[in-house]
Amino acid sequence: MSEALRENALLRDTHDPLAKLREKFALDDATVYLDGNSLGALPAHVPDRMADVITREWGQLRIRSWDESGWWTAPERIGDRIAPLVGAAPGRIVVGDSTSVNVFKAVVAATRLCPDDRDEILVDATTFPTDGYIAASAARMTGRKLVPVAPEGMAEAAGPRTAAALVNHVDFLTGRLHDLPGITAALHEAGALAIWDLCHTAGALPVGLEEHGVDLAVGCTYKYLNGGPGSPAYLYVAERHQAGFDSPLPGWTSHADPFGMTSGYAAAEGATRGRVGTPDILSMLALESALDVWDGVGIEDVRAKSLALTDFFLECVRVYVPQGRVESLTPEAHGERGSQVALRCVDAPAVMPELIRRGVVGDLRRPDVLRFGFTPLYVGFADAERAARVLAEVLAEVGSGLDG
């Protein structure tokens, strides 16, 4: 059976229309890299671009590069490049700051767009911790009550007191894909705003921000967008909200006349009012260069391969791994799955380091979850088969099962 799976993997890779994209990344055949849901691989052309940024744009042009090299307009320009990947129109996204900072902007601004009698903020109860921390702080600062709710309960929880809800599109731990269209529609029906965290979906599957009427969204760029460690995040504000978007961090670069240096603040128009301070140019231009790998790539094709890869990996796990050693936390249904597979394993803390030592790189989420991210631009079916096979080998040497 194992030989059949290997042959199947090689055949699928041969006919994969996205397979050639792997050549655009700095990867080697010794490692199966399944941690792109934490840090995407380096696009191979980025070092040369950054060498030019550092030696010519910074080293030679220096201050002139703010104009001559387009540094000043980079946050909006790069936002427009991300927009098609999340289903947004031009002029809706600005790049800069961290995801945490953008969550803060979005939540506070959302409450300011709502009447004062809407005094509750709903937050995804299974959210990535920073979203919960920031939402709690924003609630304290705005005099709202924070109400944790499971994503599937958002529709019932939303009511006349709800100002906004902050929800993760994909659960970081399990890989479960939440119902963005349905939850957004339910929030709107209750008169509330929908704020979505796209960290685990941008670059992995279609999002449809405009199509589904999302109000605000945030996301990082160092996972499936391959922008590099700590690359700047982004903020989406629907056009209908831009004129009323009142940022809690009104920095000088979001001013209508930033170089006027006036003491009074007047917000710029459009996505620019989501900016705060001086853009982090080196990491921002690395991200811009990294986005070149998306030229000519359809997000629907990426989604199709993502589902095929995760299906195949789960099939290989079922064949190779003895029953009872791992339990998939990731939904089988395609409509409920992101681009990762999470396996519960009581021996996870010992298993993951050994997997990495043997060239299969995923990550551990304590106490007992093995996460494997499948980035369709550079992960193939042979990678999925090898990862499952090595997992079975490691489990044969470590521990005894789900019940200890």
Could you describe the 3D structure shown?
It is a single chain. The longest helix has 22 residues, at 299-320. The protein has helices at 2-14, 46-61, 65-68, 74-86, 99-112, 129-142, 154-157, 180-189, 239-242, 281-290, 299-320, 348-357, 381-397, and strands spanning 32-33, 93-95, 120-124, 145-149, 162-168, 193-197, 216-219, 234-237, 327-328, 340-344, 360-361, 363-365, 369-373. The strands form three sheets. Strands 2-8-7-6-5-3-4 form a seven-stranded mixed sheet, sandwiched between helices. Strands 9-10-13-12 form a four-stranded antiparallel sheet, covered by helices on one side. A two-stranded parallel sheet has the order 1-11. It has 404 residues and is α/β, with parallel strands linked by helices. 47% of the residues are buried.
What do the pLDDT scores average to? 97
What overall form do the CA principal axes indicate? globular
> Order of strands across the widest beta sheet?
2-8-7-6-5-3-4
Uncertain runs: none
* Overall strand count: 13
Strand content: 5-15%
Query: In percent, how helical is the residue content?
Result: 25-40%
Report, as a whole number of angstroms, the end-to-end distance: 28 Å
Order of helices and strands: HEHHHEHEHEHEHEEEHHHEEHEEEH
What kind of sheet is the major sheet?
A: 7 strands, mixed
Query: What's the number of helices?
Result: 13
The computed structural class is alpha/beta
